[in-house]
Amino acid sequence: MPHAVSSSIHHSLPAILCLHGAGTSAAIFEAQTRNIRVSLRSHYRFIYIDAPYDSAPGPGVVPCFEDSGPFYGWICDEPSLPTPGTAASGLASLSKYISTTLSHQGVNTSDIVGVMGFSQGTIVASLLLLQAQWRDVRWSGLQFGVMLSGACREDFVQAFLGQKLRIPTVHVHGLRDPYLGSSRMLAKEVYCDKWAKVLECDAGHHVPAKGEDLEKLTGCMREMRRRSRIKANWS
Q1: What does the alpha-carbon distance between residue 143 and residue 129 come to, in Å, rounded to a whole number?
Q2: Alpha helical stretches, state H, 105-179
Q3: What's the rounded Cα separation, in Å, for the pair 172 and 199?
Q4: CATH second-level architecture of 5-228?
Q5: Residue closest to 196 by CA, chosen among 111, 138, 129, 112
Q6: What is the rounded (10 degree) CA torsion for 71, 75, 80, 82?
Q7: Could you tell me if 168 and 227 are in contact, meaning their C-beta atoms sit under 8 angstroms apart?
Q8: Amino acid 231: pLDDT
């Protein structure tokens, strides 16, 4: 049974699907992105879902969210996905899980205009954007993405078979993030430069929550909504 979906109010607003990192949950990601939601409350509604696999607490979860379990992850704790075909198949099953979870809560995938992922959640967010680029009817409304402290690895890049994403995205890189190399790899290897805007922050592995970093991110999210109304040439 898919895990519960949480969403903000104002159901007439365009919806952003929010995918948490490894070893956290929808509730934790909702708390982590509170200031983003407040800043954009008149522009979007935000929908949060739990990943399908049980997990130990992820990086930075303890001690702040130590008592906020259970915790979930998007990918099984395998050391690697051995072939591009296996990686693609595994990621496709996640897309089905997400669409089923949303359906059980009365949310149509075609209503989702943006996807925002943190850490491991950016891998799944990128898959959904690829399916939108392939014009998968389930994600026909998906127009932009937000990648916070992105995650990436070689087998994931190979699963794209050399096809880079040409959908507007913003990538937030923390210059003190121990996984900064992975964030940069995602932006460089999976996304076309023309469509990917990179924001570098003097921060670690966390969601921008205040000050200039928050203002830049939310400004980009407003702008991407405007840009996405002009159809990109994905052919």
Answers
A1: 8
A2: 121-133, 154-159
A3: 5
A4: 3-Layer(aba) Sandwich (3.40)
A5: 129
A6: 160
A7: yes
A8: 46
